[in-house]
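Annotators were shown the component list below and the corresponding predicted structure, then asked to write short factual statements about the assembly.
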Amino acid sequence: MLTLTHFLILSFLLFLIGIAGVLVRRNILIVLMSLELVFNAVNIMLAAFSYYMGNLNGTIFVIFNITVAAAEVAIGLAILVCVYRRRQTVYVDEVDEMRG
Amino acid sequence: MEQFFFYIFAVIALVSAVAVITMRNVVHSALALMICFLQVAAIFILLRAPFLAAVQVFIYVGAVMVLFLFAVMVLGVGRETFGEKFHSQSIPALITLAVLFMVMGLFVFTGKLTVPMGRYTEAALSSNTEVIGKALYTQYIFPFEVVSVLLLIALIGTVVLVMRGRTRQVR
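Structure shown to annotators:
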């Protein structure tokens, strides 16, 4: 029988993998993809709680979440294209002009 | 039976998520991410949210992945060698991850949530899209409008960001 814990553990592992990608990889495209993994983990958790509580508020929250994630990806990739035009690099640790 | 399918989807999702962050070729990472999104859509169906599954397939697999592949194509980032794959700060990052793993594992396992999942009413299941649409346009009308303005801002912002670079190059 499926319990809430199954979905929580799945979401938790996906979240950790996503955070690992954000922290460890240098390629900014992979960093953005890992960010999407984190968004997906959160969406699974919201949908699981929505099902568990038996009302649709969590589901509606997931829809807003997906919308914001789509906007974030569009802006993120546009900024990425700008950075690449100016600096000719996609590695996050080479864009360190603002380091104090 | 349901549990069997859950394990299939969960294992494929986790394996492809690991593939996303370990692949050397960015295009392979993007394809693994697409597989992961499809598995998450299947898990939404197990969670009795067919509308979410459809939205996941349309927006993530359709739009977001196409954006990523376009970015890969425009930037022309191909394979990277093994040495330049990881940060110089990997060790502090891994320590942070281990701590996060322990804290979140503690929360998941000490919370007494090993209860079976709840039941939707028959109406909410058979007309899932209709119920969600009604809630979106009545109870959640203000967030809905705010999100639509946000999307407009994102659209204009993207165009402005990319256009400005082009005019400067022309001059």
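Statements collected:
1. The first helix of chain A runs from residue 4 to 24.
2. Chain A has a mean pLDDT of 87.
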